[in-house]
Design a protein that fits this description.
Largest sheet: 7 strands, parallel
Helix content: 25-40%
Distance between the termini: 34 Å
Number of helices: 7
Bound molecules: nicotinamide-adenine-dinucleotide
Strand content: 15-25%
Order of helices and strands: EHEHEHEHEHEHHE
Structural class: alpha/beta
Radius of gyration: 17 Å
Length: 254
Amino acid sequence: MAEILTDKKIIVMGVANKHSIAWGCAQAMAAQGATIIYTYQNERLKRSVSRLVKATDNLVECDVADDNSIQDAFSTIHQRFGTVDGIVHAVAYAKKDELGGSILNASRDGYALAQDISSYSLIAVAKAASQFKLLTNPASIVTLTYFGSERAIPNYNVMGIAKAALEASVRYLARDLGPAGVRVNAISAGAIKTLAVTGIKGHGELLKMSEDRTADGNSVTVEQIGNTCAFLMSDLSTGAVGDIIYVDKGVHLI
Ligand code: NAD
C-alpha cells in the first residue's frame, strides 16, 4: 500500500517517553513516510527523547509556557527544515494537587497554569507557526483532547475545563487559519496509562472504568491514536476542519 505521508515534514510536540501518545503519533506517521521533527520541554525531557530519537538535528527544545522558547524553536526548525506540513500538539499539564477531589478546591493559579499549558499553548504555537510562515498549504494541526471536556470525570477537574477551552480553540483556529490552507482538528483519545495520567488521583480506577466502557472491552492503544493522527496529517483528510474526532473505542457512547 502507498504511504500517505511521503515527503511530509511534521513537528511532534510532547514526547516524554515510549508510552507517550505523541510517540505513538510519531511512529505511525514515520511508518507512512513522514520526516518527524520532535520538540521537547526541557533538558530533562531531552535526555528521555534522545533515547528514542537518534537524529539530533530533529530534536528542538520548546517550552510552550514561554513565547520566546516557541519563537526560538520555530526559528530553528525553519532554518533547518524550511516549511513543514503539520504540527501535532500533544502537550498538557496541571499541578498534581489540582487533579483530585472537588473542583471547589481549584486554586486561581492552578486553574490558570492548566489553561496556559494545556489550552492557550495551542494558540501560541499556531500563532508562531503563522508568523514564521512555517506551514505549507495544505497543512494540518492536530491536538489531543479528552472526554473530560464534556463530562464531569472524577478528579479530572481543571484539566477537563482546560480541554473544553482547547476544543473551542480548535474551532476558532480552524476558522482563522482556514484561508491559509491550514486545518485544525483534535483527537479525543481514550484513557491510556502515560506519565500525564499518573498525575490524576485514582488514575487506576479511571483507566479501569474507561476500559470497561469500550465497545470491545480493550483500551485504545497509542498505535490506534497514531494511525488516526497520520490520517489527519495526510491529504486524505483535507475536508475535516475544526472537528473533534473520538479515538476511544466508543467510551463516549457507552
Ligand atoms: P505524556 O506525559 O507522555 O505527555 C505529555 C507531554 O506534555 C510531555 O511530553 C511533557 O513534556 C509535555 N509538556 C508539559 N508541559 C510542557 C511545557 N511547558 N512545554 C512543552 N511540553 C510540555 O502524556 P500523554 O498522555 O501522552 O499526553 C499527551 C496529550 O494527550 C495531552 O494533551 C493529554 O492531555 C492528552 N490525552 C491523554 C490521554 C491519556 O489517557 N493518556 C487521553 C486523552 C488525551
